[in-house]
Metallophosphoesterase family protein (Cyanobium gracile UHCC 0281), 219 residues
Amino acid sequence: MNRPEVVAIGDVHGCASLLEQELTPHFDSGAELIFLGDLIDRAPEADGDRLVLERVWQLQENPGAYGLAAVTVLRGNHEQMLLKAMAPRAPDEDVELWLCNGANPDLLPLARERQAWFEQLPYTAIRGRYLFVHAGVRPDIRLEHQATDDLIWIRRPFLSRPHGLPYTVVHGHTFRHDFKVTRLPHRIGIDTGAYLSGTLTALKLRIPSPHSHSMEISV
């Protein structure tokens, strides 16, 4: 029996053209796509945020039409900043934080129409021995006790030492100066700085256990 296949997609940041290039090889593969968050902001092309969101929504609503098993989208810090900026009577500092991080205010009307979708985005997904998360985890803390802010914002100490969880963590959020994928026994970093480098990473993984389970941390 074939083992299930997952394709993890790093931080897209409104790179609609790059996303299309990376998606095409996986159509009709039966794989599950897992987006690691930060679909939006810092888009290098006109209307990139809208195009990326609409494409992801299209895939997620009918994955079978594209020969996919499922499409999972995780929450990144940019989706979280957008949610805070959309909140009723949002503090000025929340709006400014989003805008200062490459946001396009023209996205707000569309985002408000789909606010419920943003609000339900999970922080993690587990497939077999892989833990998918936007930024990482705080070392030596059980998964169920992780702070959600760490899951979408953390860099160190996660990047500098093993985390102690029984998973290989697949994450985005932090890209290397050479824009390469980081492959270590305890973590795989696939943010390759698409909006700067022109390289968006889609990492294909075989789920190693036939008894793989699924779990998500939601709001």
Summary: The chain has a mean pLDDT of 94. The longest strand covers residues 5-9.
